[in-house]
Design goal:
Elements lengths: L1 H15 L3 H19 L4 H4 L1 H17 L8 H30 L5 H39 L21 H11 L7 E6 L6 H10 L1 H6 L2 E6 L6 H11 L14 H12 L4 E8 L2 H7 L11 E6 L2 H7 L6 E2 L5 H13 L6 H13 L4 H11 L5 H9 L1 H7 L4 H11 L3 H10 L8 E2 H11 L11 H14 L4 E5 L5 E5 L2 H13 L8 H14 L11 H4 L8 E3 L5 E2 L15 E7 L14 E6 L19 E6 L8 E2 L12 E9 L21 E6 L5 H6 L5 E8 L5 H4 L13 E8 L20 E5 L3 E2 L4 H4 L6 E4 L4 E2 L2 E3 L10 E5 L5 E3 L10 E5 L19 E5 L3 H16 L6 E5 L7
Parallel strand pairs: 1-4, 1-5, 2-3, 3-4, 9-11, 10-11, 11-12, 12-13, 13-15, 14-15, 15-16, 16-17, 17-18, 18-19, 19-21, 20-22, 21-24, 23-25, 24-26, 26-27, 27-28
Antiparallel strand pairs: 6-8, 7-8
Helix pairs in contact: 2-4, 2-5, 4-6, 5-6, 7-8, 10-11, 14-15, 14-16, 15-17, 20-22, 20-23, 21-22
Length: about 900
């Protein structure tokens, strides 16, 4: 028993090593790229060792693209060495750079530490050479082993889920499809997360008496991640009961086996189940063995990958298995624990709580049922209820961990890093996708991929890939269909956290507790405040040099000098920190790339100007609490020297300085070519030079104030926005001091041509100016807010808004809206809010085939009634998915 447990621990440790080494290596190569290209004047960069290391670590990174762990002790050792040497090199380089910056003007004091850094990097070089040598040997050996035929099986893998509780409706639909009227061969995919019950569902359909009666031939084959075509063919033949005498002399001949299967299936109605398919190539390799006759044959396929399911399916039929709801979860748990017996009343509420904590994952419910079987004592059940996932992790049953490991191990190196990073967020936390993408970019383990112009686009593709693999859940989409909020199933999150913590990729630190410990020590012993001895995060197992701090619980700092600690000098990412007192924070953080702050103070000086001197800063996100100063923040002229900036968001507004002349600055201003997001700019004049400084801007929110409506467009240089050729999202809020002064915005009023999203308020345009918007060829989202357009009648024109998917009208004077399905052919979502004068929604809007929902908020009874009639018409046509939502102060929902 002890030997078996030690074997289990070794296997678990092997799995834990697979990702962190690659993330550490990718981050180091990114750092070396930066300092060689951007900072050649650092002492260290002048030494040839840096370029040598760049070449060798880049070669190592390329070598790893074709490397996959064998899972043995030698692999574990090499991977751990890669991780450690990458972290070591990164620490030495970043500390040396920070030391040089701190000792500017005192170079002699720096010489000794510089020499020590070079000596350490020379040792790193020797270690890298040794690793590359060992890795090449291992890769060659692995390739040799991969050429041998992997195993296959004709029996289903153990699922431990023998009941169909919660799957009855799925099973009925699948049986209907299997035994339906279509006479053509159909491939039916079942797709979903590992452990969600795909194999159970397929097995139930395969063994159902109706299937046994309906099909002449049936076969079950488990494909798995590593397969060989002839092994699969042999498994199919054995499952069909074909005598071994027919093929035992030609078991190695793939072509012969393929023809033999074809021979036995031709003219038959057959059912083949292919369980656990991981690659589209599997289907390409074996599909020719299945006759495509007109006998009503079926191939049922289970997979975790949506891309595989879409590739193989022969019709619109696809089952994406969902998580069980609370009732079905409790029914499954109750049946597994009590079978046919009744659950004692005193355990029922506790049992329901336990079932809810499994978050609808059938395999987790089955595993926890095994824990509850040990005792019917109320105290034991209550203990399990309070610590469900802890009991899951400690369970003797390895099946849950193995199921999750399969999905994880199948990921490319980069996606492993992305997945584990998501695991650092709290349970049930809905993650803002834009924020997540920017954090990934700041961490430095992303690479540009084919078809993507920016790292952000590459990050979005990584997230899409994880979603297709059923590892990340999308909770909400944006109006244009892009992902807005995502989260991870709690069971998978726990799995990711265990792996990441073990490898120091991130630590599930209670930073609130760390901060309390730090502040209590510095208050009781002021002398310790500047000392490096108070590092509570190290007590939790974090690395000495903290690079990432993610706060999620509204952690508040009494003294921002916390960030001046030596152990935080290499800080790269700070998310969601709340400041309550001014301090010279971030004065020493040369390496920081991502800062997200919440200001809870009325002091304008709280936002330190040091932030605008951070040369590596990529993302700056500033928000204020409702008790803080609400006036826009004024930023210094150094803003125009922050050439690495990618995303700048000030929720309460920002006043940018004019672009200074080079003669006014000690260092010439440079084009902010990486800047993509600028929110929310107040009363800035977009001169020709200013626009030239931000040529690649993609998202822009601006607010402009004026006493003279006729001059506002010219006053703020808004016509220059036409030269922002990459601009995709634009929000313009115009504010007129005197409402009676609102007039035409002038002849130069126009919008950038390639906008995807446009939001307007306060423009006071007549409805005939809609021609300026409808001509935008890529517009998908249009928000018309208060006073954006004036007048009582809007008559749409045929041929406009060909790409529009989302239309919002809010607080408009509109009374008559004349439009039909030809004007908005792709409209999916219509929102009408606070338009009290509008008499009705044109009934023809309901004829738009793409329309999915209409939302009405605080509008006239005529608008509500027309929405109801459109809903009734859609229901009569069988469109049960169509939604109409009506909200008043007293909420109601149709």
């Amino acid at each position: 028993m002890k030997q078996r447990r030690n074997c289990v621990l070794r296997r678990r440790r092997r799995r834990l090593l697979e990702m962190a080494y690659y993330a550490a290596l990718a981050s180091l190569v990114h750092l070396l790229d930066d300092i060689i290209l951007q900072y050649p004047n650092f002492f260290l960069c002048k030494h040839p060792i840096v370029k040598t290391l760049h070449e060798k670590f880049s070669s190592l990174e390329a070598l790893l693209q074709d490397y996959s762990s064998k899972g043995d002790e030698a692999s574990d050792n090499v991977e751990a060495r890669i991780r450690d040497v990458a972290y070591r090199a990164q620490d030495v380089i970043e500390i040396e750079i920070s030391d040089q910056i701190d000792t500017i003007g005192r170079e002699p004091e720096f010489i000794t530490s510089h020499e020590l850094a070079v000596d350490e990097l020379l040792k790193v070089e020797q270690d890298v050479d040794s690793i590359v040598k060992d890795l090449k040997v291992m890769t060659e050996d692995l390739q040799g082993k991969n050429n041998s035929a992997p195993t296959g099986t004709s029996t289903p893998t153990s699922t431990d889920i023998t009941t169909m509780v919660g799957f009855e409706e799925y099973l009925i639909k699948i049986k209907d499809q299997l035994c339906g009227q279509s006479s053509q061969l159909q491939v039916i995919p079942i797709v979903g997360m590992g452990g969600i019950g795909k194999t159970t569902l397929a097995r139930a359909a395969f063994d159902d008496p109706l299937s046994v009666y309906h099909f002449d031939r049936r076969a079950w084959v488990v494909v798995s991640q590593h397969y060989h075509a002839n092994v699969l063919f042999l498994s199919i033949l054995k499952s069909m009961g074909v005598s071994k005498d027919e093929f035992h002399k030609k078991e190695e001949e793939t072509g012969f086996l393929e023809e033999l299967i074809y021979k036995h299936l031709i003219g038959q109605r057959y059912l083949i189940v292919m369980d656990d398919v991981w690659n589209t190539k599997v289907w390409d390799d074996i599909k020719h063995a299945f006759p495509n006759g007109s006998h009503g044959s079926r191939i049922l396929l289970t997979t975790r990958l949506l891309d595989v399911a879409n590739y193989v399916r022969s019709s619109d039929f696809l089952y994406q298995v969902q998580f069980l709801d609370a009732d079905a979860s409790w029914s499954l748990l109750r049946e597994k624990v009590f079978e046919k017996q009744d659950c004692p009343l005193e355990l029922e509420d506790i049992g329901k709580s336990v079932a809810r904590e499994c978050r609808g994952l059938p395999l987790a419910i089955v595993v926890i049922a095994g824990v509850l079987l040990d005792s019917r004592a109320t105290r034991h059940w209550e203990e399990v209820s309070k610590n469900v996932r802890s009991f899951l992790n400690k369970s003797e049953d390895e099946h849950l961990s193995n199921i999750l490991s399969l999905s994880y191990n199948h990921l490319p190196h980069l996606l492993k890093a992305c997945l584990l990073y998501i695991g650092s967020f709290p349970e049930d936390y809905e993650i803002n996708v834009r924020m997540l993408v920017r954090l990934w970019v700041a961490e430095g383990f992303l690479k540009l991929i084919e078809g993507c112009e920016t790292l952000e686009e590459a990050a979005e593709e990584c997230l899409k890939d994880l979603v297709k693999r059923n590892l990340v859940l999308i909770m909400r989409k944006r109006a244009n269909g892009k992902f807005k909020l995502c989260m991870m199933h709690d069971i998978l999150r726990d799995f990711c956290r265990r792996r990441a913590v073990h490898e120091s990729f991130f630590h599930g630190l209670d930073w609130e507790r760390c901060l309390q410990v730090y502040e209590s020590v510095t208050v009781s012993s002021p002398a310790t405040e500047s000392s490096s001895s108070c590092k509570p995060w190290e007590e939790y197992g974090a690395r000495k040099h903290v690079r990432t701090i993610l706060w999620f619980k509204g952690v508040r700092m009494k003294d921002a000098s916390f960030f001046e600690k030596n152990s935080l000098r290499l800080l790269k990412t700070l998310y969601d920190a709340e400041l309550r007192a001014a301090a010279p924070a971030f004065s020493r953080h040369f390496h920081v790339k991502y800062i997200s702050l919440r200001i809870k103070s009325s002091k304008e000086s709280l936002l330190s100007t040091n932030i605008f001197k951070l040369e590596n800063l990529q993302t700056l996100n500033i928000s204020c609490s409702k008790f803080a100063l609400r006036r826009p923040i004024i930023v210094p002229t150094e803003f125009w020297q922050m050439v690495r900036l990618r995303h700048v968001t000030f929720h309460q507004g920002v006043i940018l300085p004019p672009v200074p002349a080079d003669t006014d600055m000690p260092v010439p201003v440079r084009v902010l070519e990486h800047l993509q997001t600028l929110h929310r700019v107040v009363d800035f004049k977009f001169s020709k030079r200013a626009v030239e400084m931000i040529p690649n801007l993609r998202k822009l929110k601006i607010s402009c104030c004026s006493r003279d409506g006729s001059a506002i467009w010219e006053l703020h240089g808004l016509s220059s926005l036409l030269h922002l050729h990459r601009l995709e999202e634009l929000r313009i809020d115009l504010i007129f001091i005197y409402s009676h002064s609102r007039t035409s915005l002038g002849s130069d009023f126009a919008f950038p041509q390639y906008l995807n999203k446009l939001s307007l308020s306060g423009c006071g345009l007549p409805w005939n100016k809609m021609t300026l918007i409808r001509s935008l060829p890529s517009l998908q989202v249009l928000r018309l807010k208060i006073n954006s357009f004036e007048g009582e009648e809007w008559e749409a024109i045929e041929g406009e808004f060909q790409q529009l998917k989302f239309l919002q009208m809010e607080s408009l004077e509109l009374k008559h809206w004349r439009a039909d399905h030809m004007h908005f052919p792709r409209l999916q979502c219509l929102k009408i809010e606070e338009c009290s004068l509008l008499e009705e929604i044109p009934m023809e809007i309901g004829e738009i085939s793409a329309l999915e929902s209409i939302t009405v908020y605080n509008c006239s009874s005529g608008v509500e009634e027309s929405a109801r009639l459109i809903l009734e018409d859609q229901r009569s046509q069988g469109n049960d998915a169509f939604q109409v939502i009506v909200r008043r102060y007293a909420y109601s929902h149709w």
